[in-house]
Write a structure and sequence with these properties.
Distance between the termini: 66 Å
Number of domains: 2
Helix content: 55-70%
Low-confidence stretches: none
Mean pLDDT: 81
Oligomer: single chain
CATH superfamily of the largest domain: Clp, N-terminal domain
CATH topology of the largest domain: Double Clp-N motif
Structural class: mainly alpha
CATH architecture of the largest domain: Orthogonal Bundle
Strand content: under 5%
Shape: elongated
Order of helices and strands: HHHHHHHHHHHHHH
Number of helices: 14
Number of strands: 0
Amino acid sequence: MINFEPKKTYAYRAFVFEKQTPAWLFGTFTNILMIIASGLLAIVLLIWLRIDLGILGYYFSQWLGLLVLATTIVFLLISWRAFLDWLKTPHPKRTLAQSAPDIKAGKANVANWTSFEALHTILTATEKSSKRTEASFSLILLSELIRLDSAKFILMRLGIQPEELDKQLKQEQNSAKDGKGLQDILDLAIDAAVQRGKPYITIGDLFASLAKNDPFFAGQLFEKELDVEDVKNIGYWAESLEERERNRGKFWTYENLVRMPGIGRDWAAGYTIGLDQFSQDMT
């Protein structure tokens, strides 16, 4: 029997922290503070360069104090966000492939090898399943999955409209009891992740498992002349794109820094009198 204890993972702590933290704090509020901090920085620099700003120039120390305050708050918010992101990412000491036998024997907690998004979806489905005994767990899990943007992307690439599937799911949940439980779903999800050499179970692996464990979803795929391998391939491709976009946003990494072009590469001709005062010729 597979051991699934999400409350013993760091990701569960991130899940609890996020529920207690207002969503706007890391979105609109942080963006507004960054804009304010940028404006304050511009004012402080202009005053420091002794550019006449009229009456604004007489309050250098006040502007500087506000800049430090706004920058400190932004730094703390970004640090908290980064800490939550670290908690969300699984950090097992062994790979999923190495631990798979122990996981299936119940000797290791499979939640430690489950992505935050997948873990969150399973937790929500488990909670709803305890209140709705008339529907199978696999159907409830599927209904939770299709609410995610990443899952909608996978479904649309499979030729399945998420809105149509959601409507059919609501009708099916009132009568269907043939789907499998969490143990069977996790068992095949582990196999799907190991087959692709993934470090942990993702949304795509849950879809691949449901393609075998849920008769309703398997029927939807059959109508489109698709099988489990198609679901695995589309899921893996979608996750690769998502990972690439996520890494592209980390401008501070070496890989992204070396992609940035140097200054003046598109200059045709001219003098750099101002630039020469603050730079050194490296050629």
